[in-house]
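Researcher: Next sequence.
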Amino acid sequence: MVHRSLANIFIIAALFAFGCGGGPTPQSDVVQDTTEADTVSDTALPDIDQADVPSDDSNSDIPSDIALPDGLERPVADPVAAARAFRLYYAERVDRAVVAFNRFMLFGDTMFGINIRKVGVARSGDTFEVVPGPKDNNQIGTSVRAAWNAYRLYRTRTLELALIRMFNGMEFIGTVSGHDGVTGRNAYPNWTMTINGPAGTVGRTRDGTTVESPYVSDAGLESEMISTFFGDMDVTYRLEPADILFNYMPAVETGSYAVTYSFSMLPDFLRISDCCTSMMKVPDDYPWAGAFWSNHNSRDNFPDLVFGYLAAGEAMDDPDAGPELKAAATAAWEAGRKVGDLVQQNDSRIMTVSEHTTYDQLTVSGEMRPDGTVEAETLGAMSDCQMNYAARALSTDGLDAQLPELPLPGALENLIAPFVDVESGCEWMEGGHTCTRLAESFCGKTWGQLNELTMGGKGLIDLAMELDEEDPGAAGAILGQFYGNYDQPMNAALAVVEYARLTGKQDLLELAQATLAEMTDLSRTFADVIFGRADPAEQAQMRYETALIDGLGGLTPPATDFLDFAVAEQQMAAMEGLLEMPDSTVAALLTEQEIADQIDDEQSDASAPVKKRYRDNWGDIPPVRVEGEGYQAKVFERDTASDWRPVERPHHRRMGGIDLLEALPLCVTNPQVLDCTWAKAGCARPDLYHDGKVDDADRTIFQTTAQGTTGCLPANNYCDGADLDHTGTVDALDTAFMDAAQGCHYFLSSQPSDNAR
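Model: Next structure:
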């Protein structure tokens, strides 16, 4: 029989659903919101099963403290890990992915950009039009961290330029509001930018009038940015939110347009979400006057930004980085410090500018929704100790293993206490809750002790398992929303790990890694309990995402959880595919019924005030209609509906969910899983035939040099190239390298690349 406390556990699950993400968001959804059938997700994945490569080479026994002769490299410790990393991240492939990312996933200006994970692209030959977002939750800092780790390993100019642009973007997202320490979910400079790559020119207009960027840049560096990332394309970036919402969106996201976007609140803000965020317009007299930024940055967005700012903190002290990169990293780090400081100054609360106050007044993020309803829990108030300590780490005060006591204004203990057994020790407490332990979850328990919270004498997890045995899928209904947001405290714990490693605080590192291990172990339990019976594919996806967090934290998750890195391969294939996308086509016209259905679907989950707003202002006539071979739409501006006006017929390919180099940082934190030694040597090195690719022709040349040949040195071009890993001997590791390189390709040029030398 289903346990009588089922109702209570449902209540607790709802209370546990911290953040505003809601539900699992698998990374495998590489492409979304498409209007055409030929999406990136159709890209076939190559066979990435690992071959049996020899690993008994005697050179692998060379101790790490023995100096090798000048010009020689050290053999890899594990050829399987090196082969795996090469196939995913050989240097030329990484550069291609970074170019694609800068073109189609990074937005702002030539010299700065932030990741927005939803984009429409129209292509006709070498002419492109790109429309990003809006999207609430984006991997802004996570992308920066990936690029930083790639640069530390590969040191190519392409990666360095990308990092400069991305660190400048981290400064932009932290300063665009004009309030020190206030961040956003995304931001737009509010201009349309045209780049003529072959001519090396750039122009910016706002409402059709030429504008100058407040960002001061070096002309030579900007020219190099254009040449590197946009040199073969003529592209227009539509970065004016009003244009995106009122011209592009009516027939693209018809339901969202009718219910939300169509209600303009200019000149103050634009509606892009009724629950979570609005696009706030920066008033005059601020440095970024006229720009827009997405307010109500909350707990689910915070760890991502911390990752980016921590990467900047490490990069600015990199002795091998150039002055341009160091300057960008320093500015980003300073902006990040102000974010952490503002949280500390406001008793562990993330601050913002609200739709319901004046622009010069800061309020706590997520207290009141954009639709005017009061949020059930303040989403800007820290509700978990891991994020609380991550914010402290980012601040000027920093963090040590001797943890300070910090306020926890979003604590859920008082909400949970009435529903769990008194013996659980979860009593209602007068006054505010505090954090004293990094691993703390609820009611004084660590995350590893969460099952000690009981109902009717049974732990919450045990109870969910019991219910799921009786009714497969019940565990998901009970705990699915909570688990969909559990990545927030896990990533915050990972941020503390990264901070401790960055600052060299070994005691804190050990504490943070122990906390992270406890949390990821629980995450695997959640994945098994919630999805083991109901959705094994989702179970595998959640365990994969958990394994990435483990690996990035320097821990060793079950090797099988990485799924042979098929997800990472899919991400890379999708990114590369952006460079070869076909010309776009015009979408079929919607019918009157399809317009009505999309609006009804959008309203089905809307709040009562939002439904009333639509009913009072649009009534029975949708604000979008077909007219001839196109569309017309209306905008409700404050108090009055506009006349019908022509808007765009969709002709953009829509994409999203593509992450930059998501597993590559493992080459730094877990080289026993991914070893990028061969990868950073690149495809050019095993291309012995010198035709821009590696295939059987290269293998044939390689085999002309006998195994065991020694004395391979720079003077003899490492035995005519057969000593692929440059260890001085042609051996089994070189054979494994050649096998791993089969199928790689790059573009030949008159000048050797960074990786061809």
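Model: Residues 6-27+384-557 form one domain. The first helix runs from residue 6 to 16.
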